[in-house]
Amino acid sequence: MKISSFIMFAVFCTMGFYFIGCSPINEKGERFISDQDTSFSEDIRSISKRINDKPNEVKLYATRANAFFYEDNYNEAIKDINYAIKLEPKEALYHFKKGEYLLMQDTLKFKEVRASFEEALKLQPNFPEASLNLAKILIARQEYNKAEEHLSNVLYKDKTNAQAYFYRGISRKERKDTVAAVDMFTQALIHKDDYLEACIQLGDLYAARGNLLAIQYFDKAMQIDEYSYEALYSKGLFLQKKQQYKDALKHYERVVDINPGHKLAHYNMAYINLLFENFSQAIAFADKVIDLDPAYDNAYYLKGLCLDIQGNKSQAKEMYEKTLEVNPNNALALKALD
């Protein structure tokens, strides 16, 4: 009887160790977050409670990573998606999401981002979003041929993919092939009529040629998004170059209403006011530019020029000297002080 009891005890212990070895991840494990921790949002705490109840359910970590992403907490998002990858390394979507999250960090870790998208494509070759994101970062690195290989793969499988045409347009534009760039951006608009960025790109390309078609595309962009300060600014700049200064001013005023920190719109308003000899307004706009960017040398020069024309020679000289302090190679300030 004693022997039987001993055997039963031994079996029990062995089974106990077996169950301990196969038990789910401890709730205080690598990615444990208490659902009572109020330093996290209600959404995060809610998902964390589900994770703590089912710590082996991989999708929950990916869900929480996405919640962190939408809260702009990219570091925590990356930690969660890394843990999901650790538990399920063959899931292409997790590698893709990791690449997306890494792209949003302040410091771009190019090699890691690239590796994430490439791994997603290795696991799932037909993954257009991964191909598009990979192409985008390759264009930023000026690896145009490799980028276009990925874009061609997307278009081979889906000839209506507007984003693929758009990024191909960016690639061609950066390589100075503006004819092909126009064609690609036009194709993007054909397949996605409300493609804001394609409208702005077409407007900019036609504006560079002095072609009035630019107005058509800038106006279309503003129909798509009336708050697009990029389209407003580009149209204002085109009108300014056409010497339609009053209309340009209206567009710049709208730009700074939407985006008060738009340095170039403030600077161009200063320049136009200088042309019309509204010196006090020109100086006020130049001061605003300097507040926004103390390293913008042309704003100091423009302010100095206004003071100079008004006869304030000593103050003008100070501004010219300040211009050269910021940029010793500013030709206009050098000439003014000569």
Fold blueprint:
Blueprint: H1 2-21, H2 42-53, H3 58-70, H4 74-87, H5 92-103, H6 110-123, H7 128-140, H8 144-157, H9 162-174, H10 178-191, H11 196-208, H12 213-224, H13 229-241, H14 245-258, H15 263-275, H16 279-292, H17 297-309, H18 313-326, H19 331-337
Structural class: mainly alpha
**Beta-strand proportion:** under 5%
- The shape is globular
Tally the helices. 19
Distance between the termini: 112 Å
- Helix coverage percent of residues? over 70%
Radius of gyration: 29 Å
What does the main sheet amount to?
A: none
Mean pLDDT: 91
Strand segment count = 0
Listing every helix as H and every strand as E from the N terminus to the C terminus, the arrangement reads: HHHHHHHHHHHHHHHHHHH
| Uncertain residue ranges | 1-27
Condensed summary:
75% of the residues lie in helices and 0% in strands.
Describe the structure.
Helix 4 (74-87) packs antiparallel against helix 5 (92-103), helix 9 (162-174) runs antiparallel to helix 10 (178-191) and helix 10 (178-191) packs antiparallel against helix 11 (196-208). It is built from 19 helices and no strands. The protein is mainly alpha-helical and 338 residues long. It has helices at 2-21, 42-53, 58-70, 74-87, 92-103, 110-123, 128-140, 144-157, 162-174, 178-191, 196-208, 213-224, 229-241, 245-258, 263-275, 279-292, 297-309, 313-326, 331-337.
